[in-house]
């Protein structure tokens, strides 16, 4: 070509800079391919000769000719620009261009490999027309293209098998974008990052940063990818996002098509203002605020007048004016302001909040935020005004719902001691706290719940010194301690306590071999003929107990029932010796009428379990004095249909004979046989009697082979539940009902992806003719938490929950489907035992 080069081809440093800011790296025009590579200015590396070139341009051989090739540099510029122009394609095909770093030691320097600093491809058709064929044919790689892309496609977009995030920020500020969801790897891989910031001829201190992050689909399914714009003061601080970008993705067509759920709001900005309750900025005292404003108030503000009206309830005149300076009349022409008040319920532990997501759901705009609970209590509490700014064009006028996704600050462990019956914290004397936990000298703050900021893993061994529990409280026998690991070295540690002092029934158990227990050596013979007793005063109780046990052991009961107790109650007692170990001996019910009082208890016959040691039992039931008129008191064993005082196989046989109409069979206690408590003795009571026999005698659980499916749900998830219950499913109707029922506070849609729905397609009517399912739902705070069924019996299933120390911050819900034969026995109180396997500590 003898003609001059077109004006759009760079001819010096300034025009190369302008080209990069306008077109990015490539432009196809006038039958020419122009590529402007951006290179580091440094020409030599340590150990390399000064003359050694660092970069080399490589192309597909025999496809196109090189028209011009020049490098432009500037003493003040951050980069050099290597301009190469190609023309005259010789044949149809693919033309590739790469800039390689020759300082990288690699055995293969083929185009497109990791050694390439930049790589581009072009297609030449049969008419010798040239088009760019790589992703930069539509993906921006310059500031001009970036702005055009955001205007037309938004900050989060999908094309073919790619998802694109457009991230903008200002350099020199304490904020940065960070990827918060990392469990996308089942469906995506991170493809590339591209800097679209404006190139300048001189180094700048600050300026705008424009980058894009690209993800490529690799497998069909559903997942969420999220980027948060948060402060970066400390890598260990809990994220406090001001903005979030969320791609709720569905991948189909063998990973060739990505679709986005458009409900996520990508242009919402979150901030908050904190006012000390002891400052002069508020309209009332701290206590008045906790009395009157503890519940959040929300508003959608569209004018300065509305803002003044809302805030005047809380802020005095000066504070109100200071707040309003943020929001001018011109602001409300383009934006809508959402407000929600927040009063720290922990009185000094919450002073940070962060945005976790904004989305339209069920016709409402939901704003999810996280309040960060600190392990150290501050001297002041704060009244916070949460603010969300939304462009008017993005808000459709829907009701706004604020959802607090409270989190613990980094390294914080929250320790709760609760009543297992009520679920409420129990009151612990202040002077007992120092000795309550098994780590003397450890700084644990609070007044139940307690807060412990600890970096090492010693919190995994935290225990309670039972001596410091309040009077009448004992640790739960079924689940005394539970640890819920939230990741980020935070956890909920829950101790469950049984409060026996407030119960109207109790069972005392003593080994018959206990030295100095019985008042007489022949007491076992005496107990065979003993009768139930009634005590209406502490002295009467003392006299009754003296018949059986020595004074040392009388104190054990006398300390529980004092004069204050007997002022309003009488105490019913029964005594017996048992050979089964007595773990299942308990009082079930007390029936009071004018004719008599009957106390029903559980006592298994020694059909399946006989101990080497006999045990002495004292059964106790409190009855209000107002209900006791010296009527007859009797004690009856539930299920004891043959009248021998115990419940066992013989009672089941007696019940069956009686239902079949055997003339020589009678029921000794009609109410003891009415297990269903419907005043009717029928086959339903027989069924319940059989189940009760299995339960009370603790028959050895039957073990089953494990055949389980682990299915992840799609859709938005709000709240978590990691203490699941099992559901037994025996029909397609029950399965459909289960799939459409929300899990507590975890709300999700259908099973995600064809591979998920295909897995449950086999559960049809024919399948349920021979099988049944145990369905166990899990809601998790992170998709990186894994589950595995490790043991399955008729009474329980054990699930190992693998919790990594470093977790993704996306929520996830799962269904574990365990397949069993139709005739498999499943206990009525089938339990799900979750064992936490903490990884990386």
Question: What would you note in describing this structure?
Answer:
- Helix 12 runs antiparallel to helix 14.
- The chain is elongated, with a radius of gyration of 37 Å.
- Strands 25, 26, 27, 28, 29 and 30 form a six-stranded mixed beta sheet that branches.
- The chain contains 17 helices and 44 strands.
- With 841 residues, the protein is an alpha+beta fold.
Question: How would the blueprint of this fold be written?
Answer:
Blueprint: H1 13-23, E1 26-29, E2 32-40, E3 55-59, E4 65-72, E5 79-87, E6 93-101, E7 116-124, E8 130-132, H2 143-153, E9 156-159, E10 162-170, E11 175-179, E12 188-195, E13 208-217, E14 221-231, E15 243-252, E16 257-260, E17 269-276, H3 286-292, E18 298-301, H4 304-311, H5 317-324, H6 329-334, E19 335-343, E20 350-361, E21 364-373, E22 382-391, E23 399-404, E24 407-408, E25 412-419, H7 433-436, E26 445-446, E27 450-453, E28 473-475, E29 481-487, E30 490-499, E31 505-511, H8 523-527, E32 533-535, H9 538-546, H10 551-558, H11 563-568, E33 569-578, E34 586-592, E35 596-602, E36 615-624, E37 632-637, H12 649-659, H13 670-673, H14 683-696, E38 708-712, E39 727-729, H15 732-739, H16 754-760, H17 765-770, E40 771-780, E41 786-792, E42 796-804, E43 812-821, E44 831-839
Parallel strand pairs: 21-23, 21-24, 25-30, 35-37, 42-44
Antiparallel strand pairs: 1-2, 2-5, 3-6, 4-5, 6-7, 7-8, 9-10, 10-13, 11-14, 12-13, 14-15, 15-16, 17-22, 18-19, 19-22, 20-21, 25-27, 26-27, 28-30, 29-30, 31-36, 32-33, 33-36, 34-35, 38-43, 39-40, 40-43, 41-42
Helix pairs in contact: 12-14
């Amino acid at each position: 070509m003898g003609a001059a080069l077109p004006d759009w081809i760079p001819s010096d440093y300034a025009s190369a800079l302008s080209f990069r800011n306008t077109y990015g790296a490539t432009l196809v025009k006038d039958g020419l391919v122009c590529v402007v590579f951006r290179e580091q200015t440094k020409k030599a590396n340590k150990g390399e000769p000064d003359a050694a070139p660092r970069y080399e341009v490589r192309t597909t051989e025999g496809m196109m000719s090189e028209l011009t090739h020049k490098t432009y540099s500037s003493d003040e510029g951050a980069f050099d620009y290597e301009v190469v122009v190609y023309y005259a394609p010789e044949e149809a095909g693919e033309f590739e261009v790469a800039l390689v770093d020759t300082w990288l030691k690699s055995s293969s320097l083929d185009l497109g490999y990791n050694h390439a600093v930049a790589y581009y491809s072009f297609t030449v058709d049969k008419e010798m027309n040239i088009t760019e064929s790589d992703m930069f044919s539509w993906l921006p790689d310059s500031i001009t293209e970036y702005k055009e892309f955001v205007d037309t496609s938004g900050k989060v977009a999908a094309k073919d098998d790619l998802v694109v995030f457009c991230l903008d920020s200002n350099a020199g500020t304490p904020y940065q974008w960070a990827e918060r969801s990392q469990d996308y790897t089942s469906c995506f891989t991170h493809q590339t990052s591209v800097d679209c910031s404006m190139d300048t001829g001189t180094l700048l201190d600050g300026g705008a940063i424009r980058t894009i992050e690209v993800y490529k689909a690799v497998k069909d399914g559903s997942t969420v990818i999220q980027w948060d714009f948060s402060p970066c003061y400390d890598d260990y601080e809990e994220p406090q996002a001001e903005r979030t970008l969320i791609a709720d993705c569905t991948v189909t067509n063998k990973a060739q098509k990505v679709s986005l759920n458009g409900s996520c709001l990508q242009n919402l900005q979150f901030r908050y203002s904190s006012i000390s309750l002891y400052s002069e900025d508020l309209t009332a005292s701290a206590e008045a605020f906790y009395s009157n404003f503890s519940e959040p108030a929300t508003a959608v503000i569209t004018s300065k007048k509305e803002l003044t009206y809302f805030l005047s309830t809380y802020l005095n005149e000066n504070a109100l004016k200071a707040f309003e300076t943020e929001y001018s009349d011109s602001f409300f022409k383009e934006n809508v302001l959402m407000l929600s008040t927040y009063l720290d319920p922990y009185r000094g532990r919450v002073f940070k909040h962060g945005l976790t997501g904004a989305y339209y759901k069920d016709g409402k705009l939901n704003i999810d935020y996280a309040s960060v609970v600190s392990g150290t209590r501050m001297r002041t509490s704060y009244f916070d005004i949460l603010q969300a700014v939304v462009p008017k064009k993005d808000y459709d006028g829907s009701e706004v719902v604020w959802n607090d996704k409270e989190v613990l600050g980094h390294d914080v462990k929250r320790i709760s001691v609760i009543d297992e019956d009520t679920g409420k914290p129990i009151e612990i004397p202040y002077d007992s706290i120092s000795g309550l936990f098994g780590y003397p000298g450890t700084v644990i703050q609070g007044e139940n719940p307690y807060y412990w900021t600890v970096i090492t893993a010693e919190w995994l061994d935290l225990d309670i010194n039972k001596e410091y529990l309040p009077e009448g409280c004992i640790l739960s026998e079924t689940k005394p301690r539970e640890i819920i690991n939230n990741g980020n070295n935070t956890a909920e540690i829950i101790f469950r306590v049984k409060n026996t002092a407030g119960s109207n029934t109790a069972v005392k158990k003593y080994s018959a071999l206990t030295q100095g227990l019985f008042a007489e050596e022949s007491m076992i013979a005496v107990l065979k003929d003993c009768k139930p007793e009634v005590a209406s005063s502490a002295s009467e109780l003392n006299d009754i107990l003296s018949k059986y046990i020595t004074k040392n052991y009388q104190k054990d009961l006398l300390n529980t029932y004092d004069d204050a107790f007997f002022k309003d109650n009488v105490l019913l007692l029964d005594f017996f010796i048992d050979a089964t170990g007595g773990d299942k001996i308990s009082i079930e019910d007390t029936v009071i009428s004018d004719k008599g009082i009957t106390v029903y208890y559980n006592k298994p016959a020694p059909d399946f379990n006989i101990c080497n040691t006999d045990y002495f039992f004292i059964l106790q039931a409190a009855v209000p004095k107002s209900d006791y008129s010296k009527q007859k008191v009797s004690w009856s064993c539930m299920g004891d249909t043959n009248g021998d005082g115990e419940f066992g196989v013989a009672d089941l046989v007696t019940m069956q004979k009686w239902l079949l109409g055997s003339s020589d069979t009678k029921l000794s206690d009609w109410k003891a046989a009415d297990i269903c408590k419907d005043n009717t003795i029928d086959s339903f009571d027989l069924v319940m009697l059989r189940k009760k026999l299995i339960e009370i005698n603790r028959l050895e659980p039957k073990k089953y082979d494990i055949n389980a499916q682990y299915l992840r749900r799609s859709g938005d998830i709000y709240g978590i539940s990691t203490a699941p219950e099992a559901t037994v499913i025996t029909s397609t109707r029950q399965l459909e009902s289960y799939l459409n029922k929300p899990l507590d506070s975890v709300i999700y849609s259908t099973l995600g992806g064809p591979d998920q729905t295909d897995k449950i397609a086999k559960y049809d009517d024919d399948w349920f003719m021979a099988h049944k399912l145990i369905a166990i739902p899990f809601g998790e705070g992170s998709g990186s938490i894994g589950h595995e069924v490790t043991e399955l019996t008729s009474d329980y299933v054990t699930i190992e929950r693998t919790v990594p120390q470093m977790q993704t911050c996306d929520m996830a819900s799962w269904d574990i489907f365990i397949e069993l034969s139709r005739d498999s026995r499943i206990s009525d109180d089938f339990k799900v035992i979750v064992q936490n396997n903490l990884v990386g500590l």
